[in-house]
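*** Residues and shapes ***
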Amino acid sequence: MLNEAPKKENKFSDLNGADTDFQAIHQTAEKFMKQKKYKKAVIAFLNAILLNKANIPAYIGLSKAYKCLGIYDKAIKYLKLAKNNNYNSKYNFNINYELGINYLLNAEPYLAVSYFQDAIKLKPQNLNAQIQLAITHELLEEPNFALMIYEKILEEKPDFILCHNHKAGLLMQIGEFEEAARVFKQILKINPGYYRANLGLGICLDKMGRRHFAVRYYKKYIEKKPYSDTSKALAGRILEIYSKKSPSSKKLRVVS
C-alpha cells in the first residue's frame, strides 16, 4: 500500500492563533515601518491583506506606509477599504483619524472635517484629533471655529503648550498681535525654555511698534538657536532696529 502524501498544514485553521502566515508577515511589515523601509512595508502589508482580508490593522499599516511615501491617494483608498470591512469598533477611531490626516496632507481639508469630527465623537478626550480639527478650520479660512476649539482645549488643559502655540500663531495670522503676545507670555510662564515663544513674542512686539522690546526676545531666541536661518534673519532685523531703518519684520515667522 502506497504511503499517503502528508497533509499540508493549514496555518489558517485558527485565525486567533499566534502561528499564522499573515501574522508573521504583518510583524515583518511593522518591522519595516520602524526601519523606515516604507516600500518594503507596502509589499509586506499587501501580502498580509491577501492572506487575510479581515486583517484591519494591515489596511491601517498599509495606509501609513503610503502616507510616509507621500502617496496620499492610496493611503486614503486603503483606509476606506478598512472602514468598509471593519466589524470591530476598536479600529474606528484610528481609521477616521488617519483619513482626516491624509485628506489634510492631500490638500483637501474640506474632506477632512467630517472624519476628525467622527474621531472626536469616538474619543472626546483625544487632544490630537481636536488640534487637527482646529488646523483644518484654519486651512478652510474659518479662524473663529479654530479659535473656539483651541479655547475649549485650553479650558480643559490650560498647560497644553502645543495648543497655546497654535492659538498664538492663528492670532498672528489674523493680525491680533496684542492678544497673540499675551498667549506667548503665557507659554513662557508655563515653560521659560520654550524658545519658539520668544520668537513669537518678539515678532508681535515688533509688529506693534515696540521694536526695542522685541529685540530682547529676539536675542533670547538667538541664544537657543544661534546657527539657524531664522537667527540670521533676526540678527539683521536687530541691526535695522538699532540703526532706525524701516521695519522689515514681515520676513520673520514662528518656526519649529
